[in-house]
Design brief:
heterodimer; A: 5-stranded antiparallel β-sheet; globular; B: 6-stranded mixed β-sheet; 4-stranded antiparallel β-sheet
């Protein structure tokens, strides 16, 4: 029973365009959501987060949108750069950012020059 | 060091042998997590330590898996009588407290032959 799902295993985008990565969750107790980026042979690195009291959080080229009623969040990267090519994991926790995270299966983003 | 450190980075072991994986969290971080990523899969939660509280072991897949955290710092994940399905990248993460994001180490790639 996957509580956090990333339905697109891969995404290919042209450099300079927008990348949109999607994530759905089923557990209504989740109230904190994070995105991690992972390069091969490295651990995931924290990218951006959002709490359930907000519907948008922006940090430079990265924006996360949260739709609580739909239990859906998305990560927008604009403009996309070749260095953004990595696997992106959506994660959720209940109670606080430091609680146990439940991860989605990841989406491999490929940004073509 | 500045980040979460894991050792060894790679481990090849024979089926049936025991292995120990080590994690040095970021100094001062009270929360420590173990996750694993099997080939083509997302990140699977294993165990969570928070301060002096009893650990959350709900993710451990069998009683062959155990973990301890000594002195609130270094953690060791032990897998007894390893099986081929234990082959995965084992990732450790730490966070300063319950309200901050987790930072990951580079992982230990375990291969059971």
């Amino acid at each position: 029973d996957q509580q956090v799902k990333q339905n697109s295993p891969s995404l290919s985008v042209q450099e300079g365009r927008i990348s949109i990565l999607n994530c759905d969750y089923t557990n209504s107790m989740f109230d904190y959501f994070l995105w991690y980026k992972k390069y091969p042979a490295e651990g995931p690195t924290f990218l951006i987060s959002i709490s359930s009291i907000k519907d948008k959080n922006e940090d430079g080229r990265f924006t996360v949108f949260l739709n609580k009623s739909a239990k859906h969040l998305s990560l927008h990267i604009v403009p996309s750069q070749p260095g953004d090519s990595a696997v992106y994991f959506c994660a959720a926790s209940a109670g606080s950012a430091g609680n146990m995270l439940t991860f989605g299966g990841g989406t491999r983003l490929m940004v073509k020059p | 060091g500045a980040g979460v450190s894991q050792s060894p980075s790679n481990k090849v072991t024979e089926k049936g042998k025991d292995v120990e994986l080590r994690c040095d969290p970021i100094s001062g971080h009270t929360a420590l997590y173990w996750y694993r990523q099997s080939l083509g899969q997302g990140l699977e939660f294993l165990i969570y330590f928070q301060g002096n509280s009893a650990p959350d072991k709900s993710g451990l897949p069998s009683d062959r898996f155990s973990a301890e955290r000594t002195g609130g710092s270094v953690s060791t994940l032990t897998i007894q009588r390893t099986q081929q399905e234990d082959s995965a990248v084992y990732l450790c993460a730490s966070s300063r407290d319950r309200d901050t994001e987790a930072f990951f180490g580079q992982g230990t790639r375990l291969t059971v032959v």
